[in-house]
Amino acid sequence: MSETLAEAAAPVPSTGAKLTAEALGTFLLVLGGVGTALFASNHFTDPGSGSAVYVAVAFAFGLTVVVGAYAFGPVSGGHFNPAVTLGVAAAGRLAWREVPGYIIAQVVGGVVASTILVLIGLFGPDGWLTTAQDAGFASNGWGEHSPSGFGMWAAIIIEIVLTAVFLFVILGTTHKLRPTPFAGLAIGLTLTLIHLISIPVDNTSVNPARSIAAAIYGGVGPLSQLWVFIVFPIVGAMLAGIAYKALLDGTKRV
User: Fold this and answer.
1) What local confidence, expressed as pLDDT, does residue 41 receive?
2) Is residue 21 helix, strand or coil?
């Protein structure tokens, strides 16, 4: 009983602190991941280029999540992704009343980051920013906007499946009763793996905030396809959250 009272009396982060942490974490993810895609190689700034830095981009996204998880996770839970927030809520790990604020903070953090990338590009080599935007600004897409020409249904399937995988890892490694040591590292490496699998298919979303942040500077094509990278990561995350709660969250007295 005394332990329960102590837990109840323990201070918790304020709503403002949680939302700030989510905004900063998403800012870091977009700045690091999309920034690497844009600056590390002309693959993402020169249409038709044969160069590729998939491994560097994949690790950039994974590293930002590792860093963000340890820096901001103790404050907000370290979602940095509207799909993750909705999936965690579906699993019963977050109150639904907190979801809108988290999502708004994540989208704002991502857009601020991509705006800073644009500002940096303004002072880049002649024509760099125009070329980057003409190539989609590292946005997600299918068909002519897919790095390897995959179609819409390929993007839909891979976003559902990989976002679900991401949620299963997040929920499994952060379980209150059976937490995993170095959960942030496991989650970051999972995101790296997800990018290694799916960058050639659709430039990897699994995160609507990341997709929105890039697409707003990527032109008409990425914006017209953005709905897929909002809807289907959320579908995958929600399915995973519901499934985890139903299938893997059970306990028994011993």
Assistant:
1) 67
2) helix
